[in-house]
Amino acid sequence: RKQAAEYSTSSSEEEFESKPSLTHKVKRALRERRKLEKETKQLIKQEELKRLHKAQAIQRQLEELEERQRTLEIFGVKLERELRGEADSGTKDENQMLHDWFELVMEKNKLMRYESELLIIAQQLELEDHQSRLEQKLREKMAIDGKSKGTVCSGPQGQTVP
């Protein structure tokens, strides 16, 4: 009897000792999970800021490009009038004016290609931002599903049991 009593006492002591260590492990796992979630949110925020800065830079470049195109357009109208003889060309000969005209056309084409590239980059940034938001929603839904699955059955001291 004495041995049986000692055995039951020692086994209940072991159970008692294992419960706090299990609780400690659960708490530690929760802390690590929260820390990981916090780090993930910080990384997402940093990526959003990078995309925002890129988008702002692209917007500035597009505005500068638009201004440059307006300037070229004004110069082109003037040059075209000179070529038609509607305006005083001064000392410029026709060959020089044609050369200037073709230079202007090449510059405008170059600016249009650059504008297209900037618009594609801007669209890519929008898609990356959209993807990031979708991934965040997915993580939130998975976290909610994980919590609801984990709380189906609870063990002693409110611990969840899978």
TrEMBL record:
Region (Disordered), start-end ranges: 1-29, 141-162
Species of the source: Chloropsis hardwickii
BMERB domain span: 45-162
Coiled-coil annotated spans: none
Feature: compositional bias, Low complexity: 1-11
Protein name, entry field: MICLK protein
Cited Pfam families: bMERB_dom (PF12130)
Gene: Micalcl
